Amino acid sequence: MKGRGVRVGLLSTEAIRPVMGGIGVRYLELARRLPALGFDVVLASPGSRDQAAECGLDPRGVRPIAGARVAELLADRQVVVAQGQLANDVVLGLPSTPVVIDLYDPWLVENLHYVETLGLDPWRNDHATWVLQLSTGDFFLCSSAEQRLYYLGFLTALGRVNPERLSHDPTLEGLIGVVPFGVEPALPAPRPLLEARRSGERRVLFGGLYDWYDPFTVLAALDRLPGHDVTLLVVRNPNPGGTPQALFARVEEHCRARGWWGSRVRALDWVPAERRFDLLREVDALVATHVPGLETDLAMRTRFLDALVAGCPAVSSAGGTVARLLDEWRAGWVVPPGDPDGLARALAEVLAGGPAVAERRARGRELAADLAWERVLSPLVAFLAAPRRDPTKDRFAFRPATVAPRDGLAFRLRRRLSRRSPR
Predict the structure, then answer these.
(1) Count of CB atoms within 10 A of residue 163's CB?
(2) Closest Cα partner for 147 from 103, 113, 85?
(3) pLDDT one-digit tens code per residue, 218-270
(4) Cα separation of 140 and 104, whole Å?
(5) Sign of CA dihedral 166, 172, 173, 174
(6) Which domains are present in the chain?
């Protein structure tokens, strides 16, 4: 078998549990699929063994990190795949172990959107963490060609793209591989999830609301669909303590002022991972419009990949990898950012149905098949089958200091007042 019993450690910053976000689902899939390829896999995460067992994992292969030192938990592994801030403990605590740094989620860029809420401390910490991890990791994962070029620039600045590396790896495929979020080859049988529809009701799913999204263009488009009884569904984040929810609050306030909250716009709790396809089967379209910017350019919107495999029509604003794929494959609808008229026309076409919509849904399934887990994992599997430290990093890599000014006076005053206010 490909893995030949290589001992692999997986380290997820998100707990593996029934209700989880994309990172948790990604590491659940790795923990499910790598053993079938011959690898001896253990998974470390903030969750419990019982929670992982609820997701179908053998609890004997799960190592909770609560109260434990991450490096000690994974010291018996021949190679470790790590993600997020917890990867620091691996590269520092296991310096002789080959480490794969999973950069699928560009969280440094995402967190730049929360500066007004969180100040500059996340930037200082995130930047210093990326400098550490990209200077010391041995193989890197990203989600797209766009991300790969971005990370190669960062790696070049840290000395990881160097003459010795290029002399034996001119394509740098041995340094960084594109491993996006995969899709299921076959979906579970459908089970009813949402309450019954009103007569004539059509449902459009937006999903979770993060600060780089633009739900207000969708709300404006609803005003331009007078012939349809459309309900927009948004989803509450399962980790509100770690993810600021300012945009969700703004959308709720806007919709309450219009008398839409709970009627034309409804909020759902986060759906368990195994039921996400049921949700997509019970809506008429997935739409997620975003703000142009670096986060959009680098993101792989996993909600769209799930929609394609579920046969749910997908509508996106232009920008980023998913919009490019939808356009190239003619697998969905792509509209200019901030264009409610164009979005309304696209939604009207989707809701009207017919052969053109059926053709795009079929193309979406073809695109999804091209992203099956077994295919997208190939670069990672190749590295894990023969894990190795990158010898050039010891001679060329370096870590520049992270520099940032003090937080502004207004922010420091707000923070001081919030700390003094009663809970």
Answers:
(1) 8
(2) 103
(3) 999 999 998 889 999 999 987 777 778 889 999 999 999 999 999 999 999 99
(4) 9
(5) positive
(6) 7-182+374-410 (3.40.50.2000), 201-371 (3.40.50.2000)
